[in-house]
Structures are given as C-alpha cells and as structure tokens.
Amino acid sequence: MVLVGIACVIGIPIAVYAAQEYLKDFIYRLEGYWWIFVVAVLLTGLIAFVSVIWQVLKAAKTNPAIELKKE
Asked: Which terminus of the chain has a smaller tally of CB atoms within 10 A, N or C?
C-alpha cells in the first residue's frame, strides 16, 4: 500500500501536467477534471488492497502439513 501511495504521489502531478499540455491547444477545454484523479487513486488503492487481502487469506487457510505432503 505504501508503494501504491508513492506511485500516486509521483504519477498525479505528471498526469496533470501532461493533461494540461495536451489540452492547451484545444479551443474547448474541460474544467474540473480533478475528480478523475481521485477516482483513479481510490480504484488503484482498492485493487491493491483486495489483491493483498486475497493472498493473505489464501495463505492463512492453507495447512502447511498437507502442502508439504504434496511435495
């Protein structure tokens, strides 16, 4: 989760700058697109959290003795 936070801190300013540079030449500009970045951060955090929890629960439910017998 820390790495996801670091990636968001680095990526959001770059994405805002890139979007501003891309949109500056258009006649019609979109204002107030900040919510897209909030949704992206929340979705990224949710996906990372769910994937980590899934792996933790999967490891917690396994019986080490049975897994060692399989090898």
From this structure: C
Tell me, yes or no, if the pTM score tops 0.70: no
Tell me the C-alpha distance between 1 and 56, whole Å. 14
* Residue 28 scores a pLDDT above 80: no
The pLDDT-based confidence of 37 (bands split at 50, 70, 90) is: confident
Kindly tell me the sign of the dihedral angle through the C-alpha atoms of 46, 47, 49, 54: positive
Domains identified in the chain, total number:
1
Contact (CB, 8 A) for 23 and 29 = yes
Place of tokens 């949710």: 46
> Using an 8 Å Cβ cutoff, are 30 and 23 in contact?
yes
CA neighbor of 15 nearest in space, from 51, 52, 41? 41
Domain interval for residue 21: 2-70
